[in-house]
Amino acid sequence: MALLEIENLTKDFDAPTSYFGSGPKRGQPGALIRAVDDVSLEISAGETLGVVGESGCGKSTLGRMILRLIDPTSGVIRFNGQEIQNLQGRALRNMRQRIQIVFQDPFSSLDPRMRVQEILAEPLIVQGQKRNAAKRISELLTMVGLDPAFGGRYPHEFSGGQRQRIGIARALALNPDLVVLDEPVSALDVSIQAQVLNLLSELQNNLGVAFLFIAHDLAVVHHISDRIAVMYLGRVIETGAANQIYSDPQHPYTKALLSAVPDPNPQKERKRERIVLSGDLPSSSAPPSGCTFRTRCWLAEDICAAQIPLLVMNPNGRQVACHLVNARSSSD
Amino acid sequence: MSSFDEHRQIRESGAAIAGSVGSTALIDEATSELVIVRSQWRSVARRFFHHRVATLALLIFILLALAALGANFISPYDPNPPLTASVLSSARESPSAQHLFGTDKLGRDQLSRILVALGQSLQVGLGVALLSTIIGVTVGSLAGFYRGWIDALLMRFTDLFLVLPALAVLLIAAKNPEPSFFGLFDLPPATSTEGMILLLAALGWMPMARIVRGEYLSLREREFVEAARAAGAGGPRIILRHLLPNSVGPIVVFATLEVGLAILTEATLSFLGAGVQIPAISLGNLIADAEDTVGTDLAYLILFPGLVLFLIVLCANFIGDGLRDALDPRARK
Questions:
Q1: Which of A27, A78, B71, B209 has its CA 20 to 30 A from that of B331?
Q2: What angle do CA A148, A151, A157 make, to 5 degrees?
Q3: Amino acid B330: pLDDT
Q4: B331 φψ region: left (φ > 0), alpha (ψ -120 to 50), beta (else)
Q5: What ipTM score was computed for the predicted complex, to two decimals?
């Protein structure tokens, strides 16, 4: 059984409407922004699932729904076999011990008026694990490579990388089974990114925690993920093992994304073919009919405008939401 | 000596001197950039005292407060003596060594009276600031954190108070000698010090509620609040441990400005006769007593209470300015 199962998860946000009645009305098309659309995913214990996609594709909303920081509009979130999308009160609080989060911005994710030890103590206090908190805090600081003597300091006394380590320590304080990493390294310098990624891998090996790793940088995701899910405009358009996706992308959007990753070898880099997508990401309040990617896809055919492609396992053993890829593989 | 050695030496000597107290330096893992470490409140105090005018204002404010507290020691005269022939005979004396601020039309020592009035002003100013801060922070906290219908209800309630014509309410209240809360319990009359504090606070908490609400609305979207929620923290904990401490700056600044405003309003009311009543003394009724002395030899009777009022309100405002600069986290010096 998977640690986390998401089925048909959808989130609609109310679009900003004008106070005096111009603009879309409630219940009319355009009044809702569908941030996450019919997403189904699974994460096994101790595994890392990378979620990639450009800004605004709903990957952070997905992460926050799993944490129950945002309530889903519809769909099921199952954690250890238990449905958690409707939990309230004490049951919700107990569940929160098991799933934690690391945020993107190491500056706004730590309360500037709290000392590091207070920040790390908060989850312990809230969850009634006050006993031995001091010992646990120095344990956590050591675990993320910081001197336990730093506990009495304030966040502004640390660099971005150190702050992110504190954020990771806070997420691990309650020994969670799953940590949602919401672009944990994209605000850091490249040299620090590598350090933090190595720390995360090391922690995963030692603690057996599962990660949902959200990022827009494919190189970073490839480095750390076992499996990858690619999102476009709120939908998952391709999933698969990280190596498979990297070496043989199927969906045109995945191909375009990967073609944008620079190669460290200058000779290969010069010969690298790039797929440059035309146009912008369509508005998620008025998505195109059928396949949402068809407006930017160089392969689009009539069927793409007519039907929404489903994410299905095709005969090649790949999960891709593209009419053309799936038609081709079934005719092979 | 290389700059790295320098850093290390500073760090080591700093650690030796300051120990865990706070003023040490650490080497940034990425850039070896020297980050000076300070306790937050100490750096706020340091920035405040860099503000010369604010420091001077704080000093004068403290001196005035001490003078009001020690009124009996500074001036040996009874501020409200029985009007015997000997008292009346020393009426209208210009300032002298015996009566530093002179005597009034009835022979009472003006310095003694001003010190009593100063005490009254400070009581009202600090009392109103404290009370209206408590009301405003409570209303603003609930509205800003819970949002939704609670917010709508509390903010319309706030608007209701904002559109009250404050002066009219105060003047009418002053005419009611035995006010009560809808007959449920008695309230102090509006012309007593306590009554005036209650009234002015009831009419002055609204800006504070709006400020606190606005702060919370922006703070509650910050990731550290989400982190607290993800850990399972409930509303009271998030408000008291995260939102309130991060709103201290604007709250303190506005409370300080409220002190000056309340003192001024109280003086205005007493001047108009709707404040504390004779024989009680306030800067407002001292000025009212002497309003016909402008341009005469007795002008000192209006000059000194006016000067004290001016000084105390000015000091309160300058302290507020200094605090605003000192508490602004973006101002790093």
A1: B209
A2: 115
A3: 56
A4: beta
A5: 0.88
